[in-house]
Amino acid sequence: MYTFLAGILLLIIGYFTYGKIVEKIFGVKEERDTPAYTSSDGVDYMPMSTPRNSLIQLLNIAGVGPIFGPIMGALYGPVAFIWIVVGCIFAGAVHDYLTGMISIRNRGAHLPELAGKFLGRFMKHVVNGFAVLLLLLVATVFVTAPADLLYNLMNGWVALGYIIGAIFVYYLLATLLPIDKIIGRVYPIFGALLVISAIGVAVGMIVTGAPIPELTLANFHPDNAPIFPLLFLTISCGAISGFHATQTPIISRTTKGEKQGRKIFYGMMIAEGIIAMIWAAAAMSLFDGPVGLNELLNNGGTAAVVSEASTLMLGAIGGTLAVLGVIILPITSGDTAFRSARMIIADYIRFPQKKIMNRLWIALPLFAISIALTQIDFNLLWRYFSWANQSTAVIALFVGSMYLFIAKKNYWIALIPGTFMLMATMTYILNAPIGFRLPMNISYIGATIITIALVITFFLAAVKARRKNIPLEEDITNWKKSA
């Protein structure tokens, strides 16, 4: 219990300490107009309040990651707590903050645009295709996953096909309508339910004295479970996730002022880390250790763990509400995944989105592809998701590093976690069955060589970019004229 409570406390302290350090290094300009005003279009660009933006951001980035990932990570034991806390404070929250703030400085640009500006035009095309593919996979899985949970919750009295159809209709409306019409209205309610359910599980564990294991030297490295790199890809959204880099620009277009950035981007990642800690602790404490947890995962999957933990801690009614809170997570990430894909494609082909027909021209093909993908077995495709997700995080952190390097600011806050995650993703793809299947010792050597080479390439490009004096932010005067 002490390890769990200390982790929660450290996350909160991290927000008020390291979060302020990161904010100071970046250097907010409160007097600078944001895209919400300079590019206001009544659809994607419009000012919204900080509480609303914060809850939308939390639900955008959460998905099922901060619950399902930590539940799987709980198989490694209490060492998972360390990665959630350290990863969240020094990697994930920095990743989200820099992505959001750099986007604000560049007309609400998405990651492909930012990669093109700071890492080169070739990277723009690569990241654009990569991001759209990732978002389509996420959006499609976030149709089927909540549909299955709802089907089970209702004991099958509504056909699964009807549930999937209803979710698709909601996604289409959320993708097409102005952000304040659906997302801006229902997300605060959904966010409250998510927070209440997580707090309920946490309080239930504390009150009942759930046997949450403590971190010791004996369980620091579980048998037959190599921590590096697997743990750092298994627990993604609760520590760091590249999916967040596709979501933060949605809110960078509705943020009123740069001073709000730490609360919205850094703060909501800390909140996600707390949720991840709660569910990792629940998975560790309620199912007779890794053996019992593994058996439940094999028989019923992560959804069974969520349902069982919620019922044990909160009873039948409270447990049902908690499961609903979990169901909300994929739904509220699926809709913004489609919305992000629409916006990224629109930016890429420079297709204005103020008219609804323009939005339809992009959205309908995306939904057609997604509907077709629901007919395919995702088990093979989804094995690549963790690697693709964390690779996107690496790209976003290197974009942040380049921005800070050009600005002659402390770029190490982004480059160190970026380099660490680069090493983790390269080791994984070299060793994993879905990759090159090399022995682990060879994978370590190969990943080290690749990482060193890419970091050297980064520094060469960064020095060149600084000499070229690449503008870090777009001229807001030109924004106003174009608007």
From TrEMBL:
Its main location: membrane. It is a multi-pass membrane protein. It comes from the Bacteria. One of its GO terms (biological process) is cellular response to starvation. Residues 4-158, 164-286, 303-427 form the CstA N-terminal domain. One of its GO terms (cellular component) is plasma membrane. The chain crosses the membrane at residues 75-98, 126-145, 157-179, 186-207, 227-245, 265-287, 312-332, 360-378, 384-405, 412-430, 442-463. It is found in: Cell membrane. Keywords: Cell membrane, Membrane, Transmembrane, Transmembrane helix. Belongs to the peptide transporter carbon starvation (CstA) (TC 2.A.114) family. This is Carbon starvation protein A. It comes from Oceanobacillus picturae. The lineage of its organism: Bacteria, Bacillati, Bacillota, Bacilli, Bacillales.
